[in-house]
């Protein structure tokens, strides 16, 4: 029996086993951090509105911020913000024509991850 179409498509389509380059991971994380920030802004605006509504509301929000769960969520939002900021600066640098090669992109991605990890850890120390 003869095949009608010769296919050059990849055989392995299991996303868990495909090896992606570091630049792909930084790009995916940049998008995920943007979505987290978009959703987190709603929570932060509700808390801001409640804290500005009255003195009792301010005290309630202040009490919530002392909770370990809220501190963890705050750290998560701050982590997303810091990563998104660092990756965004990398994109701005690349827009200026710096680091557009394959080696430059890989090095830039590694720098983004390293700087982000340091800033996220410092933010965790600051919050806790």
TrEMBL record:
Chief place where the protein resides? membrane
The UniProt entry, under InterPro entries, shows:
SQR/QFR_C/D, Succ_DH_cyt_bsu_CS, Succ_DH_cytb556, SuccDH_FuR_B_TM-su
Q: Does the keyword S-adenosyl-L-methionine apply?
A: no
Going by the UniProt record, its keywords in alphabetical order are: Heme, Iron, Membrane, Metal-binding, Transmembrane, Transmembrane helix
Transmembrane portions of the chain: 28-49, 69-86, 107-127
Show the Gene3D superfamilies listed in the entry.
Fumarate reductase/succinate dehydrogenase, transmembrane subunit
Cofactor(s) needed by this chain: heme
Kindly list the places in or outside the cell where this protein is found, as annotated in its UniProt entry. Answer: Membrane
Subunit structure and binding partners: Part of an enzyme complex containing four subunits: a flavoprotein, an iron-sulfur protein, plus two membrane-anchoring proteins, SdhC and SdhD. The complex can form homotrimers.
Q: Which family does it belong to?
A: Belongs to the cytochrome b560 family.
What is the protein name for this chain? Answer: Succinate dehydrogenase cytochrome b556 subunit
**What organism is recorded for this protein?**
Azotobacter bryophylli
Q: Which gene encodes it?
A: sdhC
């Amino acid at each position: 029996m003869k095949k009608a179409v010769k296919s050059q498509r990849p055989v392995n389509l299991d996303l868990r086993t495909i090896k992606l380059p570091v630049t792909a991971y930084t790009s995916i994380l940049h998008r995920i951090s943007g979505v987290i920030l978009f959703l987190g802004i709603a929570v932060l605006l509700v808390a801001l509105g409640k804290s500005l509504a009255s003195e009792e509301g301010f005290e309630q929000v202040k009490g919530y911020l002392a909770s370990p769960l809220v501190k963890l969520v705050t750290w998560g939002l701050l982590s997303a913000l810091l990563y998104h900021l660092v990756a965004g600066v990398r994109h701005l640098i690349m827009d200026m024509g710096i680091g557009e090669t394959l080696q430059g992109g890989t090095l830039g991605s590694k720098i983004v991850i390293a700087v982000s990890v340091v800033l996220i850890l410092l933010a965790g120390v600051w919050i806790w």
